[in-house]
């Protein structure tokens, strides 16, 4: 991507150099020759000085450009730049016409007096020209730097948003993970076959969770498979204290939802509800389509604990994720219904432009 | 040492019991699956050591300890709890992360055995010994306070405020309930609302109501009522 742009820039630079200095040399010298008498026909004998003028101007300005780059002038603030560019323009304004002078004197020694008359306007005009050259050169550089800065800012905003999204994505809860490993260790002695099943289930869940940190959305069907795996592990750990019921409408299976979001709602239901009740409880997950929107409802035994900071943070994170993915078109609500807590998620069926 | 395992997960209890079979000096006398169950078992079995899961249904491990008159040695067990256990002053207790490493378990038991006084376990009818400890917490901070370190106990409704060192935590028990368990040789009821530690008295100034103004360590001042002053005379033969 950098290659072609650089090549194009170099082309434009040389084109401008040739066109700019040719026109200035042509206009400047013609004006001098014509005004010195002889009309337009008087210009033609001096053609060699035109060519040498163009070559000399391009040569000096190119050397000047190398010098600018070497000194890194385009990085300077405008004030410091001006202090350097103005004397540099005068210097070039003198050097360019005087370098062309020897050829003129060699070819037309009889017109040395006329040259003497025109040397001051030549110096002033060339100085102006170099000034314009500087404005163009540094203008382009400043503009490009400004555009790059804008681009960087934009890129930074995108990176920040991405990082935010990743941070908001839930990982497997360590409390669950270590409890689960502990259960498995007990099962190894008690019921080796069950221990094997649990290790498989835990591996699947961990793989899914690792995957989730890279993928923003999955199909509801995939997510529900993982919810089932997760619940099977919690049932091992909590024995008969957990029962679950999953009721997913067939036409909702393919809808894309944020990865781990339903899983997180179910996990919260277990963590803050069922697990805290001495008698245990149940978890229900249901989904259906309603006017091109997917609705997922997670019901868990328990109460909303108002003072529970982690629930609020979890909920705020989940909502922020929805906002980043769907804008204002998705929602997540939590309410109490009798002895249960009901979380209801609404997301548009087509992800579309957020 | 007689130990009680308190954990809501059957598999976790089994696993810990199995691990403890290999540890000397510990005999698992019972298991409890929640706080109420634990309170009954503690009263019945008088364990010297509790293996207590921090997260339990109903009430957490800290609340359970607050409900005990006298906290036995406690080893907390937890799957993952980065904040709750850091709340403890110095190394008042040990905790083990699940799944528990056998070597860590043996070390924690040895430490608990060294800390537990060889005296007989707390008898609910006898007063608390001076080195026996009460579990208190104040927000996120927790302490096991030896009884002798308590300077003053004040009634605040159904709660009691303990004064020790520079701390003033509330205990969810009435002043009367606590007073009944304190050793009368060490603690004295100065008035209806306050119980003071006799060893912490710095000076007694006669006070207009025929009582005393009692200055305690740490800049605390308490008025002793006339009636209690008379009792105080009788007790200390002043």
Q: Secondary-structure map with pairings?
A:
The complex is a heterodimer of chains A (354) and B (238).
Chain A: H1 2-35, H2 47-71, H3 78-107, H4 112-168, H5 174-190, H6 192-212, E1 217-219, H7 220-238, E2 242-248, E3 256-258, H8 261-272, E4 281-290, E5 293-301, H9 309-326, E6 331-337, E7 340-348
Parallel strand pairs in A: 2-4
Antiparallel strand pairs in A: 1-3, 4-5, 5-7, 6-7
Chain B: E1 2-6, H1 10-20, E2 27-32, H2 35-45, E3 49-53, H3 61-66, E4 73-78, E5 94-97, H4 102-115, E6 133-138, E7 141-146, E8 152-156, E9 159-163, E10 170-171, H5 175-181, E11 187-189, E12 194-197, E13 201-207, E14 211-216, E15 221-224, H6 226-236
**Rg of chain B to the nearest angstrom?**
20 Å
Q: Would you give the CATH topology of the largest domain in chain B?
A: Rossmann fold
List the domain count of chain A as a whole number: 2
The percentage of residues in β strands of chain A lies in: 5-15%
CATH architecture of the largest domain in chain A: 2-Layer Sandwich
| Major sheet details of chain A | 5 strands, mixed
Number of helices of chain B: 6
Count of individual helical segments of chain A:
9
Per CATH, the class of the largest domain in chain B reads Alpha Beta
How far is it from the N-terminal to the C-terminal residue of chain A, by CA? Answer: 28 Å
| Mean of pLDDT of chain A | 84
The quaternary state of the protein chains shown equals heterodimer
Report low-confidence residues of chain B grouped into runs of 5 or more: none
Order of helices and strands of chain B: EHEHEHEEHEEEEEHEEEEEH
At the first level of CATH, the class of the largest domain in chain A is: Alpha Beta
Q: Could you please say which CATH topology of the largest domain in chain A applies here?
A: Heat Shock Protein 90
Biggest interface: A-B, 22 and 21 residues
CATH homologous superfamily heading of the largest domain in chain A: Histidine kinase-like ATPase, C-terminal domain
Largest sheet of chain B: 5 strands, parallel
Alpha-beta classification of chain B? alpha/beta
Shape of chain A: rod-shaped
């Amino acid at each position: 991507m950098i290659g072609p742009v650089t090549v194009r820039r170099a082309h434009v630079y040389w084109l401008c150099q040739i066109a700019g200095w040719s026109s200035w040399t042509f206009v400047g010298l013609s004006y001098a020759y014509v005004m010195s008498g002889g009309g337009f026909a008087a210009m033609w004998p001096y053609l060699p000085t035109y060519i040498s003028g163009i070559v000399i101007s391009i040569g000096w300005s190119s050397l000047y450009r190398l010098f600018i780059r070497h000194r890194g002038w385009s990085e300077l603030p405008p004030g410091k730049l001006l202090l350097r560019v103005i004397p540099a323009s005068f210097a070039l304004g003198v050097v360019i016409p005087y370098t062309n002078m020897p050829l003129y004197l060699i070819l037309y020694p009889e017109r040395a007096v006329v040259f003497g008359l025109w040397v001051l306007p030549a110096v002033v005009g060339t100085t102006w020209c170099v000034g314009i050259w500087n404005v163009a050169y540094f203008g382009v550089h400043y503009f490009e730097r400004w555009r790059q800065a804008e681009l960087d800012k934009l890129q930074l905003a995108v990176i920040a948003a991405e990082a935010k999204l990743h941070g908001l994505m839930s990982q497997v809860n360590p409390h669950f993970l270590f409890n689960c490993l502990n259960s498995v260790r007990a099962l190894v002695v008690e019921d080796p076959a069950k221990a094997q099943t649990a290790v498989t289930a835990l591996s699947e869940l961990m793989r899914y969770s690792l995957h989730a940190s890279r993928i923003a959305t999955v199909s509801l069907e995939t997510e529900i498979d993982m919810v089932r795996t997760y619940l099977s592990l919690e049932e091992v750990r909590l024995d008969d204290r957990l029962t679950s019921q999953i009721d997913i409408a067939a036409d909702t299976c393919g809808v894309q939802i944020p990865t781990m979001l339903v899983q997180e709602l179910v996990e919260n239901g277990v963590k803050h509800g069922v697990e805290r009740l001495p008698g245990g409880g149940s978890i229900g997950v249901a989904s259906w389509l309603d006017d091109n929107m997917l609705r997922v409802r997670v019901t868990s035994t328990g109460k909303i604990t108002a003072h529970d900071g982690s629930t609020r943070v979890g909920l705020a994170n989940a909502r922020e994720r929805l906002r980043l993915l769907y804008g204002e078109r998705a929602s997540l609500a939590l309410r109490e219904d009798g002895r249960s807590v009901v979380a209801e998620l609404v997301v548009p069926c087509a992800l579309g432009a957020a | 040492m007689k130990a009680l395992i308190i954990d809501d997960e059957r598999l976790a209890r089994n696993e810990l019991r199995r691990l403890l079979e290999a540890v000397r000096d510990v005999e698992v006398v019972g298991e409890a699956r929640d706080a109420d169950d634990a309170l009954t078992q503690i009263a019945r079995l008088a364990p010297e050591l509790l293996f207590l899961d921090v997260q339990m249904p109903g009430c957490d491990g800290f609340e359970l300890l607050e409900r005990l008159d006298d906290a036995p040695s406690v080893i907390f067990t937890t799957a993952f709890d980065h904040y709750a256990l850091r709340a403890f002053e110095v190394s008042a207790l040990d905790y083990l992360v699940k799944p528990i490493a056998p070597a860590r378990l043996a070390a924690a038991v040895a430490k608990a055995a060294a800390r537990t006084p060889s005296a007989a376990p707390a008898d609910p009818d006898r007063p608390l010994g001076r080195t026996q400890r009460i579990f208190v917490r104040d927000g996120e901070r927790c302490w096991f306070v030896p009884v002798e370190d308590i300077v003053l106990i004040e009634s605040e409704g159904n709660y009691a405020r303990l004064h020790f060192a520079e701390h003033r935590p509330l205990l969810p028990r009435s002043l009367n309930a606590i007073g009944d368990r304190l050793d009368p040789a060490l603690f004295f009821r100065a008035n209806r609302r306050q119980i003071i530690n006799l060893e912490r008295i710095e000076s007694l100034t006669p006070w207009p109501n025929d009582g005393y103004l009692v200055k305690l360590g740490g800049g605390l001042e308490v008025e002793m009522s006339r009636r209690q002053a008379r009792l105080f005379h009788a007790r200390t033969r002043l």
